[in-house]
Amino acid sequence: MNLRQLRFFVAVAEELHFGRAADRLGMTQPPLSQAIIALEEELGVRLFARTKRSVALTSVGEHWLPRVRALIAEADDLPGYARQIARGEVGSLKLGFVTTADYNVLPQLISRYGAAYPDVKVSLREMTSDLQIEALLSGEINVGLIIPSAETAHGSLAYRPLTREPLVAVIPESWVESGELDCAPGGLRLADLADKPLVIFPRRSAPAFHDLVTDYYARNGVALRIGQEAIQMQTIISLVSAGMGVSFAPLSLTNLGRAGVRYVPLADAAPELETGLTWRLDDSSPTLRRLVEIASVKH
């Protein structure tokens, strides 16, 4: 059984006349009749009740017709669907992202990509940069939003920077209200935080962010006092709100209106955090290409 036979069946079923069906198909009647007989023999059922004057669908033929129409319609759609896949208009994409990207580049990128390619299923996984590199190399994800560092560099990966933004201090609101910290109009100096414990990502999970903060302390001659470590930005903010110490976050994180904390600009030259897109050089999937294109367009 093949699509040609199924098209013959539909034509006869709709015309209920072998002559008209043959004209519609651009063929003569005898081979059409033979093709229908061969189809019935292959199926082992009768699809048409024939007399010298009429042709009618049997009960089997009547119930089979909608399924055959649907199958032919799907088959007719396949070439166009293949071209859509090749253009990256349908398919799937697995994207990893660092927690800080959730407040700056990720929402915009996913919104723009979803608007351009609504038929692509995007699966999101929140992961630290080092785990994203492992997942990329093993094929678990197609693309990642990472904070770049020497540890995340790999010869088989491409990288494209997307955004840079300054860090701000994150301090407990209660310390401001009690006068323990004075937030001057010009912002906080790092020296004002010298005696405060620091809440920070552990270096093993976020080396770039960790080094950015510790280098900032070293550059300003302030001794480092790590009080707590956490691998999620939301957890770090929660610990600060509980008075466990101070921290630093990208400027975009001020959009996270968390009670009990205050985001304060830094009076010293604030370090800047870079976030970028990384993917395997040998990944030629069209959906990935389209995401990279959209990420490369400045808005």
Low confidence ranges: none
Mean pLDDT across all residues, rounded?
Answer: 91
- Tally of distinct domains: 3
> What is the third-level CATH name, the topology of the largest domain?
D-Maltodextrin-Binding Protein, domain 2
Order of helices and strands: HHHEEHEHEHEEHEHEHEEEH
Approximately what portion of the residues adopt beta-strand conformation? Answer: 15-25%
If classified by CATH, what would the architecture of the largest domain be?
Answer: 3-Layer(aba) Sandwich
Number of strands: 11
* The level-1 CATH class of the largest domain: Alpha Beta
- Mind telling me the C-alpha Rg? 32 Å
CATH superfamily of the largest domain: Periplasmic binding protein-like II
Notable characteristics:
single chain, 299 residues, Arc Repressor Mutant, subunit A, D-Maltodextrin-Binding Protein, domain 2, 3 domains, seven-stranded mixed sheet, 10 helices, 41% helix, rod-shaped
Care to describe what's here?
The protein is of the alpha/beta class. The protein folds into three domains: 3-86, Arc Repressor Mutant, subunit A; 90-162 and 281-296, D-Maltodextrin-Binding Protein, domain 2 (3-Layer(aba) Sandwich), CATH 3.40.190; 163-273, D-Maltodextrin-Binding Protein, domain 2, CATH 3.40.190.10. It has ten helices and eleven strands. Helix 1 (3-15) packs across helix 2, helix 1 crosses helix 3 (29-43) and helix 1 (3-15) crosses helix 4 (59-86). The model has no long low-confidence stretch (mean pLDDT 91).
